[in-house]
């Protein structure tokens, strides 16, 4: 145990961890900007509130979601897709803050994917007990661009699997400020979030918020 590694021990160490070819975790990458990101999320959610979407099968999703940027990911009885307007009010999704764009581009570049310009940011909100089952991100037209996923608030256990649903999944703890990037040969890997444990985070209370940046078209 080196003291510098555990300097911010309640928030986890910094550094990078390779998960697979084209996939890695940038530990603590978003931590210095977290308070600004959280303020932006609060503003976005006054205009496009968090809601639990319906799956095509008619179940309510466990995590609550909203979006910002030119396109937002939605799910309803008709399926999964990207829409330019929030179906709750018919208005365009709130614009993507410049700080979000810069963070996503910087993280992608640090992971070996320069020139990433996301057109969609899905914002997932988890409370203790909620989860996200194993899935692929495959509603995007441009599979050359990576996924950039930012964790804020309560810790979560991330499942990172293979290209087939039945492949074994790695489990890794994602802490406040961690960023996961997967692209290239890992772009269609299955992933998910185990049911969230009870807890309270200094900035977000009983919540985890995940920003998922994508290039949808
Ligand atoms: C997602 O796959 O959309 C979310 C993953 C996460 O919450 O870390
Ligand atoms: Fe996903």
Strand content: 25-35%
Q: State the low-pLDDT regions, or none.
A: 1-10
Domain module count: 1
Q: What is the strand arrangement across the widest sheet?
A: 1-2-11-8-13-6-3
- Level of helix content? 10-25%
Q: Any idea of the CATH class?
A: Mainly Beta
Number of strands: 13
Overall geometry comes to globular
Task: Report the CATH topology name.
Answer: Jelly Rolls
Look at the helices and sheets and give the structural class. mainly beta
**Cα separation of the termini:** 45 Å
Give the radius of gyration: 16 Å
Helix count equals 2
The CATH H-level superfamily is: Alpha-ketoglutarate-dependent dioxygenase AlkB-like
Q: Output mean pLDDT.
A: 95
- CATH A-level architecture: Sandwich
Key structural traits:
217 residues, mainly beta, Jelly Rolls, seven-stranded antiparallel sheet, four-stranded antiparallel sheet, 13 strands, 12% helix, 31% strand, globular, disordered N terminus, binds succinic acid, binds fe (ii) ion
Structure summary:
This protein is mainly β. 12% of the residues lie in helices and 31% in strands.
